[in-house]
Structure formats: structure tokens, C-alpha cells
Amino acid sequence: MKYQTSSFRSTSFVHQVIAEPRRREILRLIWEDELPAGELAARFEVTFGAVSQHLKVLRDTGLVTLRKEGTKRFYRADREALGPLAAYLQSMWSDRLDTLARLAEEAERSEGTP
Predict the structure, then answer these.
(1) Engineered SS bond to 82: which of 19, 30, 86, 100, CB 3.0-4.6 Å?
(2) Which of 67, 82, 59, 75 has the alpha carbon at shortest distance from 1?
(3) Contact 46, 64 (CB under 8 A)
(4) What CA–CA distance (Å, rounded) separates 49 from 56?
(5) φ and ψ of 21, to 5 deg
């Protein structure tokens, strides 16, 4: 199934696409750097085929770019295509990292007290 191209894509449609947790995680992983499909798939506890289907949805909606090099396919998030959702996703991931850092600091402090 071919999804709408970016020029006809509605914000609600993009919300539906990134509502799936694995797709959001894929976007997070390829936010800064491009990664090959095999490396992306290795980070999930599902089959390569399942990750490949998620990548296809993201690619067909224009939310990721694809670069082929020999037999490998490299993916990168297309922040521009995400529009205002790019800032939201970046903020969400930053908040998660801030929370993780705070929890680690609290655990370290509690280990130091008798």
C-alpha cells in the first residue's frame, strides 16, 4: 500500500503513523545519524521483516530518507517532512533523557546514604 506523498499528507495522518511506538523509536534512532536497516532491526525484539514494514510505512509517508549503498539500505529521519512534530519529538526524547539522568542521580545519592 502506498501512502500519501508529503505534499498531500495531513497532520492527523502523520500523527497516526508516528503513534506506533516502534516507529517513534526508529525515528529516534535515526534522528541524528543514518543507520542501515539491519542495524535498526537488531535493536528490536521483533523480526527483521516487522522492522522492514515499519520502515516502509515511514518511507512511504516521506518521514525518512533512504540511501542505497550496494546491498545495504541506510535510513535517516527527515525532520523537515515532520514539520512541527519534529520539535515535539525532539522535546519528548530530551525529556526522557532528562528524567533518566535525574533518576540515575537520585539512585546514586541514595546508595551513598546509610
Answers:
(1) 86
(2) 59
(3) no
(4) 10
(5) -55, -40
Write out pLDDT tens, residues 60-100.
988 999 999 999 999 999 888 877 777 777 776 665 655 66
Q: Which amino acid is at 70?
A: G
Per the model's pLDDT, the better-predicted residue between 109 and 56 turns out to be 56
Which amino acid is located at 68 in the chain?
Answer: K
- Helix (H) or strand (E) segment spanning residue 73: strand 72-77
Tell me how far apart the alpha carbons of residues 44 and 23 are, in angstroms, rounded to a whole number.
11
Taking only Cα atoms into account, the Rg of the chain, rounded to an integer number of angstroms, comes to 17
CA atoms of 47 and 93, how far apart (whole Å): 25
Indicate the residue type of 21.
P
Q: Residues 2, 60: contact at Cβ < 8 Å?
A: yes
Per the CB < 8 A criterion, the answer to whether 28 and 89 are in contact is yes
